Amino acid sequence: MQLDTKIPGGPLTEKWDRHRFELKLVNPANKRKFDVIVVGTGLAGGSASASLAELGYNVKTFCIQDSPRRAHSIAAQGGINAAKNYKNEGDSIWRLFYDTIKGGDFRAREANVYRLAQVSNNIIDQCVAQGVPFARDYGGLLANRSFGGAQVARTFYARGQTGQQLLLGAYSALMRQVADGQVTLFPRRELLDIVVVNGQARGIVARNLVTGEIETHSAHAVVLSTGGYGNIYFLSTNAMGCNVSAIFKAYKKGAGFANPCFTQIHPTCVPVHGTYQSKLTLMSESLRNDGRVWVPKNPGDKRPPRQIPESERDYYLERKYPSFGNLVPRDVASRNSKHQCDQGKGVGDTGLAVFLDFADAIKCDGKDLIEQKYGNLFSMYEKITAEDPYETPMMIYPAVHYTMGGLYVDYNLMSTIDGLFVLGEANFSDHGANRLGASALMQGLADGYFIIPYTIGGYLAGTPLSEINTSHQAFVDTALIAKERISKLLSVNGNRTVDYYHRKLGLIMWEYCGMTRNDHGLVTARKMIQELREEFWENVIVPGINLNFNQSLERAGRVADFLEFGELMIIDALARKESCGCHFNEAFQTEENEAKRDDDHFKYVATWEFKGDELEPVLHKEQLAFENVELTQRSYK
Amino acid sequence: MIKTINLTLKIWRQETSGAKGQLETYHASNISTDMSFLEMIDTINEQLTLDGKDPIAFDHDCREGICGMCGAVVNGRPHGPEKGTTLCQLHMRHFSDGDTVVVEPWRSRAFPVIKDLAVDRSAMDQIIQAGGYISVNTGGAPEANTIPIPQDTAEMAMDAAACIGCGACVASCPNASAMLFTGAKISHLALLPQGKPEAARRALAMVSKMDGLGFGNCTNERECEAECPKEISITNIARLNREFIKAGFFSSIM
């Protein structure tokens, strides 16, 4: 495997212009001769499908849900960043670029991040033209808010449903192309494998989730926009269907997997309340603008929060980080919550929660103002917990939220398999070791609307592609392997359910490869996962048959992949002998318990090459060059 | 302080789209009142699987009330008894020990059952395909602040755009009408200046598609508004009617 970033030369600010000029173009009349498969219909896949179809390519779009409108981008609450500088605060493309590189703890590629900041403004224009109902000021112009501790207000939002509205915008553009016959839609399909012919991605094998039929589809290029893999932890804020399978299958077919251990754990989620629980709910981090985080000073203090006097409370974020206080970045806030609970100061029935208290904000600003700002979040909290946050402090605890790691891509967003492009959360490219708030939506739409339409043209125009169809032996063979795996899953017929294994795997990952990690724990966890995987294949029970709507079978395939992928995350975490962003190895910390990077030895993208089921993956390094920003130690004191 | 309840469930089971279905009885015991309704079904399914039986099929994904994938008729009411709540956000504390709960799939000719509680709602995508968009290609958009939109107008558009496309409006309507769903999209786009150039064509095309797919007409029952988990108002249906009549009488599009 050779890593070639394909970053164009010249100054940072001119790279994208230059590259767009240098990319070969497909003649407009020839575009209809090319078929493109897009898998996934979130912000990245939906916007890519629509934009490619508008250009004239024949697009086949696949999604796992019953409608492309339901992809998990829909659940994003807070907003989307852009460098419009509507507030006259001195924001700029350069500042958004710098904040994103720094927030990612200097583990992302400068050229990609700068391009992301450049196209951020086009995204807002595009979405407004589509009719996305962004919040507006009294004068009728677009409103902005600050988010995630940014020092400028650059976040555009549509109430607490920004992801939903942006996705419905992309979905409407996609539906328009379906009506025009330019996109063929395949809902309720799950990707089972990528078909590679002569080293080029030329199609996919998919399962029709309604009939169970195994289908093959060919194309000239394949685009994966299948999201992140946070569900490996079982409990996460991801939707139930989110999985690693598509990108993991691509990894096993030769695509490098970059930084798999970079997982973001979001500090403000509703705590776990029972062993039957299926998922966790995020409370927007905007709550930290007014809420104060605290725990009792004395471990084991189980008095109701209002009976604990001020003198016996520890507002630990304000105490430790006087200048940022409750607004420290996500990774710092999360680790501190865990640290308090580990000392026995956690609150609630489980002891795995901290208070987020609005009493002072209500006293200072009045209940009306707080309700105006956070009313929908407070009622969501009350719906889940049956507690009124106006009267009693919220309880929060960190939860897995986003995965910065993903398939390795070059500047064209192409993986190490020719013709296999990867967009959105499924790739690794823009967020380094920690993603900033309101940046995920920006990246998904940048990739789909404004990057892939150019770079895929460069590939198709400049690459000899033989004429093949699904009768090619590679399709027949790949489909056969997929069918055999399904038969194997259905035939184990043991006595433990798929969810049993998923929960166990989740606990292992959370305990040993979660907010903090250490070498001993990681080694232990790797062995535990191997044993669990072995037991899974001997003792899992998957009811029903293949040729039917079989949700247990769907889950079994995904969990089987997670059971392999978990090991790769651990291998990656063990190999990175430093702490950076969300990867916190206890052996590498500053005196103030902050992540301590080792730029001399680990300033690289760790890309793993699959060598075989029984063999260790091989590490390839892309050295990151920081020519435009100075490497600094993050400090929020 | 964990409270548990025991329930008797009568759940619709149907093997495939064409098969004959029936209600089957299940007993759910020691159900924590902190569970969501879907977690309660998860618990039953775990037991069915261990007993070598076929688990109950039901659609779900985000489990936080926004994707619109889940939904079933619980005791005759889409998404159950709580107002403004999707099935995934309905918690078992709203039920009492000893209750009998009947769970059926969405009922509409336009939503054929796939299996058990899962139905095919692709008809709703087809209504959107008929015109639920603004025709703007990527790259051709003007600067976002070029057109100011009064805050009230933007808020009204947002009220309509909040629809999650779950289909509860159709399931609750005695006519299985999709007027609230269609009206919400027509309103969202017709209220905004960007949507005006195509408003007439959109209204005619979407209504015609809706009728063609077998959805019934609106007779002002208002069940849809009462059951909508996002509390979309039926003023959107009034706006649909206005847009449709305006397009029929005063536009050049036939």
Architecture overview:
The complex is a heterodimer of chains A (637) and B (254). Chain A is an alpha+beta fold and 637 residues long. Among the domains of chain A are: 267-400, Flavocytochrome C3, Chain A, domain 1 (Alpha-Beta Complex), CATH 3.90.700.10; 475-601, Up-down Bundle (Methane Monooxygenase Hydroxylase, Chain G, domain 1), CATH 1.20.58.100. Chain A is 36% helix and 14% strand. Chain A has 16 helices and 19 strands. Chain A has helices at residues 15-22, 43-55, 93-103, 110-130, 162-179, 245-252, 316-320, 330-342, 359-365, 367-385, 440-462, 473-491, 498-512, 519-539, 551-575, 599-602, and strands at residues 35-39, 58-62, 80-81, 155-156, 183-186, 189-197, 200-208, 214-218, 221-224, 257-258, 263-269, 292-296, 313-314, 354-357, 394-403, 406-407, 420-422, 604-609, 618-623. Chain A has a 5-stranded parallel β-sheet. In chain A, helix 2 runs parallel beside helix 11 (440-462) and helix 3 (93-103) packs across helix 4 (110-130). The two termini of chain A are 43 Å apart. With 254 residues, chain B is α+β, with helices and mostly antiparallel strands. Chain B folds into 2 domains: 4-115, Ubiquitin-like (UB roll) (Roll); 121-250, Alpha-helical ferredoxin (Fumarate Reductase Iron-sulfur Protein, Chain B, domain 2, Orthogonal Bundle), CATH 1.10.1060. Chain B is 34% helix and 14% strand. Chain B contains 8 helices and 7 strands; from the N terminus they run E-E-H-E-E-E-E-E-H-H-H-H-H-H-H. In chain B, strand 1 and strand 2 form a beta hairpin. In chain B, helix 2 (122-129) runs antiparallel to helix 6 (199-212), helix 3 (151-161) packs antiparallel against helix 5 and helix 5 packs antiparallel against helix 6 (199-212). The longest helix of chain B is centred in the C-terminal third of the chain and has 16 residues, at 235-250. Chain B is elongated, with a radius of gyration of 21 Å. The mean pLDDT of chain B is 96. The chains are: A alpha+beta (637), B alpha+beta (254). Chains A and B meet through helix 2, helix 4, helix 5, helix 10 and helix 11 of A and helix 1, helix 2 and helix 3 of B.
